[in-house]
Amino acid sequence: MGTNDSLEEWLAESYTTSFRTACLILHNPADAEEAVQEAFLRAWRFRASMPEGGAMKPWLYRVVVNACLSKGRRHRPSTTDIDALDEVLPDLGTASPELMAERGEAGVALLEALRRLPEPLRVVVVLRYYADLKEAEIATAIRRRPGTVKSRLHEARQRLAQDAELAGAVIVAKEA
């Protein structure tokens, strides 16, 4: 990154997606806000180690994911605050998965199904289907091998496909 001004602009442009990604990982907008603020402070503090070009995005998500995981260890909500998430995630943008575009029961069921996934699976699903990172970028972001990312995505897809509550809500949404 050439100058502090351009880094500041890039971080500002990345904030909304980073915040929404943190919301999907943590399921709590207040915790997500704190995690992203901490991540952006870290990114600014360690800007000298930020890679150039295409490696910047996975680097930033590694910082965001680490902040979320740290925040999640300190405070783990027992349930998803669907109403609060609905306020934060009303416009999921072009990078969101098709199921997230479904509103109502299917959207709530998907958020709950994501919450039920173990953290390592939830993180890769959110980074792949919401943040639109490629498997190699996810591997960089979570500091795991690409094969690990592939296997986690595969397992997450299987679990989501077998989630009875999610399947019921998707069927209801398709019939509506």
Task: Please tell me about this protein's structure.
This protein has 176 residues and is mostly helical. It has one domain (4-175). 74% of the residues lie in helices and 0% in strands. The protein contains 10 helices and no strands. Helix 2 (29-45) packs across helix 3 (56-74). The model is unreliable at 90-102 (pLDDT under 50).
Helices and strands in order:
Elements: H1 4-26, H2 29-45, H3 56-74, H4 82-88, H5 98-101, H6 104-116, H7 119-129, H8 135-142, H9 146-162, H10 164-175
Dominant shape: globular
Give the topology string: H per helix, E per strand.
HHHHHHHHHH
Beta-strand percent range: under 5%
Q: In the residues, how many domains can be counted?
A: 1
What does the largest sheet look like? none
Can you count the beta strands? 0
Radius of gyration: 16 Å
Chain-averaged pLDDT: 81
Please give the alpha-carbon distance between the first and last residues.
49 Å
What's this model, at a glance?
By secondary structure, the chain is an all-alpha fold.
Which short descriptors sum up this protein?
176 residues; mainly alpha; 10 helices
